[in-house]
Amino acid sequence: MIFYILVENFDREFREKLYLGMQLLLDADNQIDEIFIGNQTYLMKALESGICGPGLVLMKSTPIYLKQRVNRLKKLGNILVLQDEESLVTFESPFVSRNDVATLLSFDAIMCSTSEEYDFYINRARYCVGKVMLAGNIRLAALRPPLIGHLYAEEMNEIAKTHGGYILFSSVFCQAFRSYPSRYRDLLEIEYNAEGSDKAFTDHYYKWSEQVRFTFYAFCEFVRRISVEHPSWKVVLRPHPSDDEEFLKFVFQDLPNIVVVRKYSIAPWISMSKLVIGSTCTTLLESLQAGKPAISFLPKDPGGYADYLKGVVPNSLVRIEETVEGLMSAVQEILSDENSLKQGPNSYNGQSAKLIPQDLDLDTVGAYKKLVVDFDKRNLNSPSSQFLKNKLLGPWFKLASFVYKFRVKYDAKIVTDKSWKLNEPIHFTAKRVLAAIGSADLCVIDNLSAEVIRIRVK
């Protein structure tokens, strides 16, 4: 069986999903013959065209505009598996926008990271009950030692050397500015107008956007007060992949103790921080897993949406501050308390939570191994397929990459993921990861393009 791992965001997902794939590939009891991993745009095109396939396909989300493409993959005989890390933030707006209920019917399995996410799927799409599995999340598991050190040792050392101790603020400010609708307006309209779509989605989304705008202005006040009252505090603002990094650098350019940087995955930044501040984002949950003190900053907005957000994961798990004054006091309290800075993994800051802490100890690799065993009976085409053995596979991916980038250059409507602007081809990153986890001598990496690789056991 072939395992296709479609990666939406290189910085945030590639290493963790590569590790998951390698555990399945090297498992003696499993039937995974090889894995393809890389940019989801090119891998989905390859699967649709028949140049690759069929196999076990791991996808991240099912927005309504992907419905036809998902159905095509299903008709070609692929086994479709969904695990959306963004659904860790379990409230209506992102769930509806990222997971069209009708499209979920095409999936063979839905892997849930937490028990609350599991319940959310069951309640939202009851006809998918037999497909939903509680599996944990490899992104969360990767934040624990020693795996975090294996995957991000170089980055952690560089961050420590360059930035020392700091307060990490993970922003999701893209909804607050006009640049955000200009990137995604077409997709929002498709979702809103599509037959069977949930019209309440846009109402939630735009209320959330207003709250984010209010949070941004409050955060600006927070960092300016820090620069005056606590010049020794260093704040690292790591923009969300959809945020405009250059705009944020411009806004805070006159403040010496704040650094705006998107470099690397969020994982090493969390690991090397003193504490983490966020607002309704998965980073807060990841911080808890890494044993870092976490604060959700939810300033009260005129529309009252912040009150609604208080009850959703991950805000419900951490300390919530609603004012700049309260946030300043909370940060000072945590930084002055040595015990709070020495939490171990799964330390929940003494907060009662709807999320069961044991959820974050779930065996994600084990859940996927069981999944492979269950689906192995389908006898999918093996790598002996002529398509996979011929020499056209690499040129096909290289041509697909060239055509797509040509279209991006001349078509402003195409939304691109900035995380795929790579400093190096992904096979170099893969080699370092495989060496760190002790698998480099066991496998062969076929470099199909700068953004797609195939890995086979020697």
| Terminus-to-terminus distance | 16 Å
Roughly what is the average pLDDT, rounded to an integer? 79
Proportion of helical residues: 40-55%
The residue ranges in which pLDDT falls below 50 over 5 or more consecutive positions are: 178-192, 345-357, 382-389, 410-416
Strand order of the largest sheet: 6-5-4-3-1-2-14-13
CATH architecture of the largest domain: 3-Layer(aba) Sandwich
Count the domains: 2
How large is the count of helical segments? 19
* Gyration radius, in Å: 22 Å
Please provide a written account of the structure.
With 458 residues, the protein is of the alpha/beta class. Helices cover 45% and strands 14% of the residues. It is built from 19 helices and 14 strands. The protein has helices at residues 10-25, 40-49, 67-75, 92-98, 101-104, 115-124, 138-141, 147-163, 179-193, 200-229, 245-251, 266-272, 282-289, 305-309, 324-335, 364-375, 386-389, 393-410, 426-436, and strands at 2-7, 34-39, 56-59, 79-82, 109-112, 132-134, 167-171, 235-239, 258-260, 275-278, 294-297, 319-321, 443-449, 452-457. The protein has an 8-stranded mixed beta sheet, sandwiched between helices. The chain has a 6-stranded parallel beta sheet with strand order 9-8-7-10-11-12, sandwiched between helices. α2 packs across α18. The chain is globular. It starts with a strand and ends with a strand.
